[in-house]
Amino acid sequence: MIGLAFLAPDLLRDVMEGRQPVGFTSEWCVRHSLPSDWSDLRKLLATL
Question: What is the mean pLDDT of the chain?
Answer without folding.
Answer: 89
